Description:
The protein is an alpha/beta fold. It is 28% helix and 27% strand. Strands 3, 4, 5, 6, 7, 14 and 15 form a 7-stranded mixed β-sheet that branches. It has a 6-stranded parallel β-sheet with strand order 10-9-8-11-12-13. Strands 1-2 form a two-stranded antiparallel ribbon. Strand 11, helix 8 and strand 12 form a beta-alpha-beta unit. Helix 4 (125-138) packs across helix 10 (283-296). The longest helix is centred in the middle third of the chain and has 14 residues, at 125-138. It is globular, with a radius of gyration of 20 Å.
Amino acid sequence: MSMDRKSVFFTGLREVELRVERLPELRAGELLVETSRSLISTGTEMTIFNRNFDPGTHWDKWVTYPFTPGYLLSGRVVEVGGEVVGWKAGDRIATRRSHASLTFAKPHEAARIPDGVSDDAAAWMGLGKIVQVGVRAAEQVMGDVVVVIGLGLLGQLVVQYARLMGAAEVIAIDTAAMRLELASAHGATIVLQTTADKAADEVLRLTAGRGADVVYDVTGHHAVLASALELTRKRGTVVLLGDSGTPGKQTLSPDLMAKGIRLIGAHDNLPPQTPNEWERWSALQMYDLFLTYLSRGQIRVEKLITHRFQPGDIAEAYRLLNANRDKAMGVMLEW
């Protein structure tokens, strides 16, 4: 039986539309999923929407039109393709697919949503895995003082993971009061309403002149890296979790060498490789762990959702994010 689906497309610079298209046939080894919720990944999607990246970067090679944005989705299985084991119609599912009313998912790229976890919360699963890659790479330990620069979607989750992993202090830095309030309500022990380049004196005061054990740069802004290094203690760690569209403008500071800082780039596509970790923590296992934390209330995301839109109002959602980014956090599409 032929079916149509609605899908979000970027058709050019700051151009977005909802299209109706014929759904291909379900293939063996796949699940057909009816979308309940999809979350706009505000950092990634707005970088793409505004083409805020330099020619020749991996962003530039990735983004061609028409482009289908999004990778955070929850829903229900409608139909099961041949050769699929363990799934049935009606099962609740979270997967990494673009914004669309119907989509296909392969079982190894999807996770079963536990009872007690809402569709709203489950849509954050992809972000939960991305942040896990970063905090695992940091090798953070109990009692560390952690600084999180940039409190967008990823930064809010870094705050929660850091507390969950036993940080003594989580110092959250951003210029937006709303973001700081959310971080404080979700695990930050200290919030600083300032820019990273103006935070050094206060971070040093709070750490008795030592600096932070781990600093996460989650801004995606090229200018922040040098300031992150300044906030870090001798032999501390800086994790670059925000993916800048203008990496050629990022600069180091003398602190990298003078303090022997470990600088780590953490990307979604690079799972852990520490001893005995590669096989233990696949993407699917990290998805399941994040959903387990949600089910136990150890990570909370529902109060981070600030706006909801119907798919037909998708252009309004992106206009909102361009005009009032500091006043929006989780922007959810309700299908």
